[in-house]
Amino acid sequence: MERGRELLNEHIEDLAGAINLCMAHGHVLPTLVLIYASIDILASLIRPESQEDVSRSDYTAWVEKYLLRAGSLPCTALEIYAARCALLHTYGAESRLSREGHARQIVYARGAYTGPVELETNKGEVSVVHVGDLFGAFHRGTTGFLAELEADVVLAERAYRRACSLFAVRGPTGPQSV
Predict the structure, then answer these.
(1) Alpha-carbon gap, residue 159 to 48, rounded angstroms
(2) Which residue stretches of the chain are H helix?
(3) Within a domain: residue 178?
(4) How confident is the model at residue 114 (pLDDT cuts 50, 70, 90)?
(5) How far apart are CA 64 and CA 70, in angstroms?
(6) Which residues of 116-137 are buried (b: 16+ CB within 10 A; e: fewer)?
(7) Which of 20, 41, 54, 85 matches a 20 to 30 Å C-alpha distance to 61?
(8) Per-residue b or e along 34-61, where b marks 16 or more CB atoms closer than 10 Å to that residue's CB
(9) What's the pTM value of the predicted model, to 2 decimals?
(10) What is the number of domains present in the chain?
(11) Which residues pair with 91 in a beta bridge?
C-alpha cells in the first residue's frame, strides 16, 4: 500500500506541476485539459471494485464530492463533465449533453473579465466559470481527496492498489533528458 501511496502522490504532484506551469504562462485551454483529465484519473482510482472502467457517474461523483464542495463554481457536476467532453473531444464548448439540453455549456473567463458572453453556437443558457476559480477548486478538491484517503482505509487501499497500474516514467528528469 505504501508504494501505491508514493506513486499516487508523485502523479498528483506531476499533474499539479503541469497545471500550475500552464496556468502561470497563460495557457488556459491546456490548463483546463489537464484539470479535466486529472479528475478522470482520480475518479478512476476510487471507482467501485466491480467496475473495470471509469464512468460518467464516477466522474460526476468525484466532482460533486471534491470539486464543488466549497460551492464557488456556478455549475453542476454534470456541466463540468459536459465541459470536459466538449474540450477533450472537440476543443470547444459544445458537447452532446449541452446540445441535447441536459447541461449548460461552460465558457471560461480569466483575469478581471466580468463582461457578457456571447456564443454563435450557443443554443441555450451558459455558465461562465472563471479559470482561476476552477483552478483553485481543483487544488482544494485534490487536497480533500487525499485527506479522505488518509481517513478511509478501504478507499485508500483501492486507490493505492490502482495507482500501482498508472504509467511510470523512469530515467533522468528535466528538459535535457527527453
Answers:
(1) 10
(2) 2-24, 28-45, 56-62, 77-90, 96-99, 131-151, 153-163
(3) no
(4) low
(5) 10
(6) eeeeeeeeeebbbbbbeebbeb
(7) 20
(8) bbbebbebbbbbbbeeeeeebeeebbbe
(9) 0.89
(10) 1
(11) none
Q: Which three cell numbers stand for residue 62?
A: 468525484
Which amino acid, 55? S
- The C-alpha cell of 61 is what? 461523483
How, if at all, do strands 105-109 and 126-130 pair? parallel
- The DSSP code for 168 is -
- Within a domain: residue 176? no
Does some domain include residue 12? yes
Question: What is the mean pLDDT of the segment spanning 145-161?
Answer: 97
133 Cβ contact list (under 8 Å, min separation 6): 72, 73
Average pLDDT over residues 54-79: 94
Q: Which residues pair with 106 in a beta bridge?
A: 127
At residue 125 the predicted structure's pLDDT band, cuts being 50, 70 and 90, is confident
pLDDT, position 25: 96
Residue 98 domain-assigned (yes or no): yes
**DSSP assigned state of 114:** -
Domain containing residue 97: 2-171
Contact of 131 with 106, CB cutoff 8 Å: no
Q: Residue 29 corresponds to which amino acid?
A: L
In the predicted model, is pLDDT for residue 170 greater than 90? no
* Average pLDDT of the segment spanning 156-177: 80
- Residue among 104, 94, 102, 115 nearest 74 (CA): 104
